[in-house]
């Protein structure tokens, strides 16, 4: 059986109609691939369409303010992707005259572009015979060949990259790569794969040996840490306070309410008497009330956050903040790029009402 013929025939009959498949413009392909990293197509598609509407060319994206980019990205997660996206757009626009590199090697030099994204752009836009290896490809190849090497090990990454390149249909890498990823996404799914109607059934080692559920093999994840966030939501007439996150965290350059992190969940008396709260709030407050008695759980890749929102009504805003702080009216708070945890709170709290 010719693997590529069977795969391409399946793709011809089953591929989804997606906007980035209607073009070979590297800007569109790059944008879609960055957005779809660790993101389902159903979730990423509206963001892609929104970005293309606001930034139809790499020059438009390059000229945008980072805050605008982060605001449009809000809710998609992994915000370093958005910051790298903006950085690379400016580099391509200013240093490369708006022209993306036309080969895998040079594409990899762009910030935020790794092996997978470079291979996708190079093969889809320029027909360069280089294989893509994403989660879908790992899964299909691991099951088809019965490979038990962990896909997130150094050895596994090397082995699957070589296997994918060996299997690549070099006469049509553009459609072959897309077909393999699509097959993994729609047919050879992580759970409940459609094995009974699979065109590769007779040659699939995992199916023949009953190993479909156990492949691919993945090493255990990094230990998840638990953190307790206490947000200080100040209210003074129709204004509140926001600060911009700095440092290297995933929420870098996003806005949030002043934050007090504690080692464990804290109750009202302990919160009110906490030295940091006394330092920031002092006695200049009308009242302090807890918005949510039960902490709101927010799960990130390696962290579990438990958040409480403390509503603090004041006569005047405190001045004892170490980080840059800004006062903003309730009516404009939704214009700031914030983590999705805060976005949901803002929507529920109805500041402007």
Automatic annotation (TrEMBL):
<dbReference type="InterPro" id="IPR005760">
    <property type="entry name" value="A/G_AdeGlyc_MutY"/>
</dbReference>
<dbReference type="Pfam" id="PF00730">
    <property type="entry name" value="HhH-GPD"/>
</dbReference>
<keyword id="KW-0411">Iron-sulfur</keyword>
<dbReference type="InterPro" id="IPR004035">
    <property type="entry name" value="Endouclease-III_FeS-bd_BS"/>
</dbReference>
<keyword id="KW-0378">Hydrolase</keyword>
<protein>
    <recommendedName>
        <fullName>Adenine DNA glycosylase</fullName>
        <ecNumber>3.2.2.31</ecNumber>
    </recommendedName>
</protein>
<dbReference type="InterPro" id="IPR029119">
    <property type="entry name" value="MutY_C"/>
</dbReference>
<dbReference type="InterPro" id="IPR011257">
    <property type="entry name" value="DNA_glycosylase"/>
</dbReference>
<keyword id="KW-0227">DNA damage</keyword>
<feature type="domain" description="HhH-GPD">
    <location>
        <begin position="35"/>
        <end position="186"/>
    </location>
</feature>
<dbReference type="Pfam" id="PF00633">
    <property type="entry name" value="HHH"/>
</dbReference>
<keyword id="KW-0004">4Fe-4S</keyword>
<dbReference type="GO" id="GO:0016798">
    <property type="term" value="F:hydrolase activity, acting on glycosyl bonds"/>
</dbReference>
<dbReference type="InterPro" id="IPR015797">
    <property type="entry name" value="NUDIX_hydrolase-like_dom_sf"/>
</dbReference>
<dbReference type="InterPro" id="IPR003265">
    <property type="entry name" value="HhH-GPD_domain"/>
</dbReference>
<keyword id="KW-0234">DNA repair</keyword>
<dbReference type="Pfam" id="PF14815">
    <property type="entry name" value="NUDIX_4"/>
</dbReference>
<keyword id="KW-0326">Glycosidase</keyword>
<keyword id="KW-0479">Metal-binding</keyword>
<dbReference type="InterPro" id="IPR044298">
    <property type="entry name" value="MIG/MutY"/>
</dbReference>
<keyword id="KW-0408">Iron</keyword>
<dbReference type="InterPro" id="IPR000445">
    <property type="entry name" value="HhH_motif"/>
</dbReference>
<comment type="function">
    <text>Adenine glycosylase active on G-A mispairs. MutY also corrects error-prone DNA synthesis past GO lesions which are due to the oxidatively damaged form of guanine: 7,8-dihydro-8-oxoguanine (8-oxo-dGTP).</text>
</comment>
<dbReference type="InterPro" id="IPR023170">
    <property type="entry name" value="HhH_base_excis_C"/>
</dbReference>
<comment type="similarity">
    <text>Belongs to the Nth/MutY family.</text>
</comment>
